[in-house]
Amino acid sequence: MASINTNANAMSGLRMLNMTQTSLSKTQSMLETGLKVNSAKDAPATFVIAQGMRSEIGALGAIGEGIAFGEATIGVAMAGATEILKQLSELETLATQAQNDGLDDAILSAQAVEVLAQITAITAGSEFNGVNLINNAGTDVLTVPTDLAGSTMTYTATNLDATTLSLTTDFSDATNIGIALTNIAAAQTTVGNALTAIGTFASRLESQGEFTQLLTDTMKEGLGVLVDADMAAVAAELTALQTKEQLNIQSLSIANQAPQSILALFR
To answer: Sign (positive/negative) of CA torsion 168, 174, 179, 182?
Structure first.
């Protein structure tokens, strides 16, 4: 039946055009954002999971920053302890030289005083962002977050200053020189132990940092699988939908012209 009030073909054509344009809009959105799931209406369950993963990735980023801060802090302490060990070697050389009768003990003692002053300066200056791990025993504690469960790694400061190491500079006689050498040997052991502990902690931090980065990358890859669009497929689909849209428009145009044929009956 021909009718000018109801054009079923036109309504069908319009419906198909609207569906095509809706699909085209979604495809263009994927092309613009690179995401197949850009909001909850695209895939509610997937979107919620993706948001949770994004939150965890952000938290892992903060943990990575904390580990980097810890590595910098422990690195400063390691450099300071290493330099103190070098200064102790120089101090040992001066004390040993003082055992020779041909050298001026007073000059050697004066040089030793300068070495102790340098050790004091090193311990005081081995600070990073307000934390000094070789000069504030029992006060400064380096706490580094390691995972999303709230676990941490801690390193407690020790004292490696000249006073704590009981270093002396009196080379006036054999007895005092012997005391100085004994104290130097004990100080070398103390600093060596501290350097071992610092190095071990630094190695743990490095390993934890690498694991955190690996975990972050893995989660990003998983997130991509959930929400990233296949851009090659999107491009192909866009071309197909654009072609389909043109055909829908042409079909709707033909359907809209059908009632005009009724006019021929009145001529």
So the answer is: positive
